[in-house]
Design brief:
Layout lengths: L2 E4 L5 E3 L6 H13 L1 E7 L5 H12 L3 E6 L2 E7 L11 E2 L4 H13 L3 E5 L2 H4 L4 H9 L3 E4 L8 E4 L8 E3 L5 H11 L5 E6 L6 H8 L4 E6 L2 E7 L9 E2 L4 H13 L4 E8 L6 H9 L2 E10 L2 E9 L7 E2 L11 H9 L4 E4 L12 H11 L4 E4 L2 E5 L7 E3 L2 E2 L5 H12 L1 E3 L1 E3 L12 H7 L3 E4 L5
Parallel strand pairs: 2-15, 3-14, 6-7, 10-11, 18-19, 22-24, 23-25
Antiparallel strand pairs: 1-25, 1-26, 3-5, 4-5, 7-9, 8-9, 11-13, 12-13, 15-17, 16-17, 19-21, 20-21
């Protein structure tokens, strides 16, 4: 069903962002592997995370929902998981699929993996090749390391010393998870830092893990055959989800919005850094620690933005936020250049092409030069023209980004579907309406 966003605001009040998706996935997986009970609050109850919960339950962990966003996972300890009877269907979740592949590989399990058409199209070789080096075997139904496939783990796994050829927290995390079942120490070397949630949470669960700097590389070592112990986890607000109401508040004149409890981990804070450079009025209040992750309350006010150049080195810390950054750039004064976006081409959709098409359909001048995205801003005080129909390609971040565009455009912006938003932000439309947004079921005009 198409949805249409119309010019509205100011957006005033408070929005509670959903729990961080990356933390929610990991808490469920590590809780399943730990001895004892892991109590998790603030879980993102989107389709991706729920699929991970169903997968660890299928492998023998007890997963009990105790209330809204509250779960208890009773783990089975090292090598206590069992082979799932049916294929693990991860839906649209690349994070769930890749992390669980690491778990299966290191625990000596055999599991079939599948997903929706989008997940089936995404490359899995980058994670499966190092897992094969650790002794796992892959039986493919799909082609070229794509789902559906069956993964057969090794017991024990073979420890490896792996220099990361591409910046990917999912690949790193899969290797470290597999390393928990290895006889010896598994080493991952990163030239370009990526999200470090796995390292932080493994330490929280009692793993023998060490992170050090060796020259230009971040080196992570995890010892195998050590047991995790169940822990309490408070999932902080997801900065990738918070980016959408935050951006709407920056762009709509007179807005004044509070977003409490948002994770500000430096490996995830690239968009916040970029917005401050562009002139956004964002205050970081009540900074604190929650389960090993830095958290703050974000107070955001409407701001006039200026175009900047965003370096390629920042991409790993904001890879999911480039679609909404493109909308912000469209409303800025001057040119914004976003460099090094090759990873956008292998997300839930070819996000680079989807963003370009959506911008052009709504009167914004933009182009791609290699892996760089260049957006010509409409200028402070000049609204984005809007009026276009955007093909989301069933990508939740494309859908939310262009709904935000419609809230600050001269003419409404329509997206072809909003149902996939539930994968990461189930109440996005409701929470935006609550602070004054006009988002309605629309028609395509055809």
């Amino acid at each position: 069903m198409p949805f249409m966003a119309s010019k509205s605001g100011p957006f005033v009040g408070k929005i509670i962002a959903p729990g961080d998706k990356s933390i929610s996935h990991r808490a469920l997986i590590f809780g399943a592997l730990a001895r004892g009970t892991t109590s998790i609050s603030g879980v993102l109850e989107g389709e991706d995370v729920l699929a991970t919960g169903e997968a660890v339950a299928a492998m023998g962990a007890e997963v009990e929902r105790c209330g809204v966003g509250k779960y208890e996972v009773t783990g089975v300890g090292q090598f206590g998981l069992r082979n799932p009877v049916a294929p693990l269907d991860l839906g649209n979740s690349g994070t769930g699929a890749r992390l669980l592949m690491g778990l299966v590989a290191g625990q000596g399990l055999c599991a079939a993996f599948d997903g929706d058409s989008s997940l089936r199209s995404r490359p899995m070789g980058r994670v499966l090749v190092p897992l094969e080096n650790m002794g796992a075997r892959v039986s493919q139904t799909g082609e070229n390391y794509r789902l559906p496939l069956t993964l057969i783990g090794s017991n024990p796994a073979i420890p490896i010393d792996y220099p990361m050829p591409v910046a990917s927290a999912q690949v790193k995390s899969a290797i470290l998870l597999a390393g928990l079942g290895a006889m010896g120490t598994t080493i991952v070397r990163e030239r370009h830092p990526t999200r470090d949630h796995t390292e932080r949470m493994l330490a929280h669960f009692g793993a023998d893990i060490d992170v050090s700097q060796e020259g230009d590389d971040t080196v992570i070592r995890v010892s195998g055959k050590n047991s995790l112990v169940g822990r309490d986890i408070m999932v902080p607000g997801d900065p990738s989800s918070a980016a959408f109401p935050l951006s709407a508040a920056i762009l709509a004149p007179g807005s004044d919005l509070m977003l409490p409890g948002i994770m500000i981990n430096p490996t995830r804070a690239g968009l916040l850094t970029t917005l401050v450079e562009m002139g956004a009025d964002i205050a970081f209040l009540n900074e604190r620690d929650a389960g090993g992750e830095p958290v703050a309350d974000l107070h955001v006010k409407a701001s006039a933005l200026r175009g900047i150049e965003v370096p390629a080195a920042r991409a790993p810390s904001m890879i999911d936020e480039y679609p909404i950054l493109a909308i912000l750039a469209a409303a800025a004064t001057g040119t914004t250049i976003m460099r090094g976006l090759s990873e956008l081409r292998v997300k839930e959709s070819d996000r680079l092409e989807a963003v370009l098409s959506g911008l052009k359909a709504n009167g914004v001048e933009a182009r791609a030069e290699g892996d760089d995205l260049i957006v010509e801003g409409c200028g402070a005080g000049a609204a984005i023209p809007g009026g276009g129909m955007v093909a989301t390609h069933m990508d939740h971040r494309i859908a939310m980004s262009f709904l935000v565009m419609g809230l600050v455009s001269d003419e409404p912006v329509t997206i072809d579907s909003a149902e996939m938003i539930a994968t990461s932000y189930p109440d996005f439309i409701g929470s935006m309406r609550a602070v004054g947004a006009c988002i309605e079921e629309g028609d395509t005009g055809s």
